[in-house]
Task: structure prediction
Amino acid sequence: MKWVTVDRISGYEGEVVQLKGWIANRRSSGKVRFLLVRDGHGTIQCVVGAHDVAPEAFELADKVPYESSIVVTGTVKRDPRSPVGFELAVSDLQLVSEAQPYPISKKDHGVGFLMDHRHLWLRSSRQAALMKIRAAVSKAARDYFDELGFTAVEAPILTPTACEGTTSLFQVGYFEGSAYLTQSGQLYGEAAAMALGTIYVFGPTFRAEKSKTRRHLTEFWMIEPEMAFWEFPETIDLAEGMICRIVRDVLERCAEPLRALERDVSTLEKVTAPFPRITYSEAIDILKERGLPIQWGDDLGGDEETVLSEAFDRPLFVTHYPAAIKAFYMKRDPNDPRLALAVDLLAPEGHGEIIGGGQREDSLEKLEETLALHGLDRGPLEWYLDLRRYGSVPHAGFGLGIERCVAWIAGIHHVRETIAFPRLMDRLYP
Amino acid sequence: MKWVTVDRISGYEGEVVQLKGWIANRRSSGKVRFLLVRDGHGTIQCVVGAHDVAPEAFELADKVPYESSIVVTGTVKRDPRSPVGFELAVSDLQLVSEAQPYPISKKDHGVGFLMDHRHLWLRSSRQAALMKIRAAVSKAARDYFDELGFTAVEAPILTPTACEGTTSLFQVGYFEGSAYLTQSGQLYGEAAAMALGTIYVFGPTFRAEKSKTRRHLTEFWMIEPEMAFWEFPETIDLAEGMICRIVRDVLERCAEPLRALERDVSTLEKVTAPFPRITYSEAIDILKERGLPIQWGDDLGGDEETVLSEAFDRPLFVTHYPAAIKAFYMKRDPNDPRLALAVDLLAPEGHGEIIGGGQREDSLEKLEETLALHGLDRGPLEWYLDLRRYGSVPHAGFGLGIERCVAWIAGIHHVRETIAFPRLMDRLYP
Result:
């Protein structure tokens, strides 16, 4: 008997196949039981008629609790009403394991309860859809850079020092000493770019921020390209191309997950190059016009990002931020040294910043000055200064936050549902 | 002027192009300077004749220190003696940044010195080749599972508990409490497999072992597939298919890096299915025959693995280990409950274990027994037990250590050169 997964069922019309999965739902109508069976690759209705199966199999179909695991045998039949286009006319049903009463029911559960049961909540069609979109986002970004000839490089997770200040670092006991969890692979990515030309880092990063907003996790994943001999404008083009590629691939490959999430894809279909590009100063003007109490020189917070991203129907690049509110490694704008060659990308529909990046300072002297200005300890960064001592070149890069990007593309409010096992200030289990 | 990278130079024969890179080496012969220029995508000889460039450019070619960054303009000429098949007849040379005296010279440096300068050492042709092979290994493994319809899932790095004992865990301060760095994504992968059918986890894992062998890092990457409804034999087939795919892709895509490492590829070309499969008991017999002081029931250490893997000319599966020396989650062999349905893959040429895996215990009762037997605290694992309470199914998986796999394929002795920034007991910088 051929074991087939739901995503491939359309190739077996009229054939008798086996499905292996879990009972997600059940409906009864006279002498027929309609089982909704999910197998992780999709969900399909299995029709069990009292006269079509043995009495024990019908009893099973009638009684077995939700989330019990089963093996179903039946004939694949076309059904235009089905989301997958097919249903299974069941001839046999075998129990693998009977579930205890399932804690997650159709009623409304609080998020705390669902998060405590995250290992089970992932089985819901909505959460499974989010995981599939997440995988497609990461793969699209990787494919984009692989095809451009970038080399994937892993930055270390355990680091001797902070990349952007020390207040939001997690400290790790490391044999007799201590280490910190990385906040960004960028500095290491710069070293790798000097060795390999164009690279990207894909990995987890950590921020011990005491913030409980819908955009923050303590553990989140980033993809961070870094390019030797690249300057500011072409780096923005690269980010634009990557976002277009991600959206295109998700639209192509995740039609079913997007449907499960009831995502309005028309807003995603608008995501084509060129994206609007405004300067930080222009952004401040827009925000002032809309009555927000902000001054030139202030950083853009979540509220300001939401207002700006709602003002445009596609992703928005904001460039040329004041150097004072950006990290020490940002290169100054040669036309106006108050400004940094920094760029953020704000996702539309109020989702805010998903990319941050820019051109890096390549002058040893200027970098030393800025380090002193920021009061940062040079010792643990000597290796980073070496990149400016031995054949410094113009270079640039950016980081895309995977969870924020998924939240935008999937159209969900809080990033905590975009990762399998979210880590928050008050959440470390399961 | 067209900026071209060395890997794409063959498409520009006879054309004038620009290269951007660093001076890796220099030779002089009368009125000609031969500069070896690397740009991260490859290395090419650039021929600078005194009569072909401006005097300042020739002066530059003659004097500028190694690792200085430059932009070279010239005509692409076919040259059969060149490893890339071409050289550049230079018409102009511009300095980007003059390097300070480069600390890494052609003379022999100790590994400690080179590791202190890892951010620069990566620029050497050997280290860059290793990074390219590493990227190709990871991509091949991902592609293999993506094409089979597996969903990529990220397991959490910060965990509340230990997967395999507590002695080798790194502890992290987590706000008011503490967390541990993950040793394996497997347990979370099992939960994801119940939601998504077939998944793989790709991410960093951590072991705080006080061992300084050539096979150990404190931070290393694994790819860990996990499959619901899969049993033991097909899981071994899956691992075999993955290894064949990895080797095939590396042979196809990394000819130049393998050449740079002087890797004998004939041993890699032999890596085709089926791989030999022996039981642990047969392995013990082989080791005893060769005079090793080992008894049935002992774990296989590095020495034993080396002897076994040298006894075969392709990767070797060892199966059916004593349950007592394997982790608590291993399923017992129904034919002999002293044994676990566990499998390791030993790489040839003495490289030892690169894969560990097997079928997981799916009975709640048996798992509870084993937890008690191992003296493990059930509390933090209640979520894991839930997977056996709600629709338990046969399932299996394995983990491939990326660094060990790269060390074998690249033919190098120590895993520390297979990752960009290795972390060892005594190494946390740069």
Summary: The first helix of chain A runs from residue 55 to 63.
